[in-house]
Amino acid sequence: MADSTTSIPTSKEKSNSVFTLNDFNSRTQLTEKAQLGDEYNPADHRDQVNGQTTGGALAHLLKSSLGTGILAMPMAFYNGGLLFGMIATLVVGFLCTHCVQILVKTSQDICKEIRVPALSYAETAEKVFENGPKRLRSWSNFAKQFVDGGLMGTYFAAACVYMVFIATSFHDVINYDTGLKWDVRIYIAIIVIPCLLIGQIRNLKWLVPFSAMANIFIVVTFVIVLYYLFSEPLVFEDKPLIAKASQLPLYFATVIFAMEGIGVVMPVENTMKNPQRFLGCPGVLNTAMIVVVSLYAVIGFLGYARYGSDVLGSITLNLKEGVPLADTAKLLMAVAILFTYGLQFYIPNEILWKKISHKFNEQHHNRTQILLRTGIILISGGVAAAIPNLEPFISLVGAIFFSLLGIFAPSVCETVYLWPDRLGWCKWKLYKNIFLAAFSICALIAGSTASIHEIIKMYTE
């Protein structure tokens, strides 16, 4: 992937002239340079041998959204209410899908303008500012560092959540069935071992089989969960249609955490053989999000109706203890999340390695990566052991990181890229993006405040 100092020859150009990305100081210059040769198509310059198929991209995108988040949806409905939760889930799902669409569309458009095959999320933010309005160009490096820092924080924190979920599932099943009295922190320490192995996989293509198996396990788990949801009559009368106002921030924080797979989007799109199939109708994105939002709404609504105020951070933890079918669901879901750990861990490590790889001798890169990944996983295990409670952890991660990266940053990038004369009739896209940015900031402040209060309350009690 080209950076701002890489020399790139124009595609099919008739002369031998060479230019750099730093030559692109304005959109006018970009247009003039593009006219010198044929229209640049980023897909023609991607790796067609090792690239991902459309099916592989769909599997990764589904798996990035169908993790611990969907199991937390009944808890989200508890904090939202039956009616409010259903309507708001559909609305938030639409907003998240739209934000992914505008991010990918902006990235694809800027790739054509600066004539590069692909850009990461952070590089997209950087190039949008770098080639945007003159007053904002000095902010290009900050935009890149902001996105990179946010992505690393997001997915390292989410990896901690995954460890807690896996350990808690094994803890509940093994302790009950064997009579052991092991603390959940012991299971976290054990889970670190397979995470150390999976975390060494450095190619998205090699993670496709893990994502495929994880999706199968998740489907089986959902079938078992639905069986238990309908095993007894669902009770709706004692469930509020709208929860207390003080609970709503936790609802939004949990749902945003559950739905947002923003960090996986650009790596998946960048490695596709046919990136034009990512957007559009049906497209990889729309197909994945229709499935995801539908499942989230159904599981959240029925799970809350079934367990009410007793619902836990993962609905599988509400299933009957000591029953083989329920134990199977818990263990299958734990293994599915374990298989997903590699995909979750891939994103922040790719970002971090690009930032520091130049500081190490190339001959020692392999050894350095092994040590780096091992150290980060061990630190993640320590954080998970320090906060082995799912509910407030999920809400806090969703409120802080996913609100900023999933909604705020894409809306800002699109606005800067389209400024000033491509914002639509009466600049409606500007007002739309202002609304999205305001919504994300409100979710950030209210959600993080409520989550921190819950964590303090949990430990003081």
Automatic annotation (TrEMBL):
Record's bilayer topology term: Multi-pass membrane protein
Domain of life: Eukaryota
GO cellular component: vacuolar membrane
InterPro entries for this protein: AA_transpt_TM
Main localization of the protein described in the UniProt heading: membrane
Compartments where found: Membrane
Domain Amino acid transporter transmembrane: 53-452
Keyword flag Transmembrane: yes
Transmembrane segments: 82-104, 146-170, 182-199, 206-230, 250-268, 280-304, 331-349, 370-387, 393-413, 434-456
Keywords for this protein: Membrane, Transmembrane, Transmembrane helix
One Pfam family cited in the UniProt record for this chain: Aa_trans
GO MF assignments: L-amino acid transmembrane transporter activity
PANTHER family with a match to the protein in the record: AMINO ACID TRANSPORTER, GH04538P
Record protein name field: Proton-coupled amino acid transporter 1
Organism: Bactrocera dorsalis
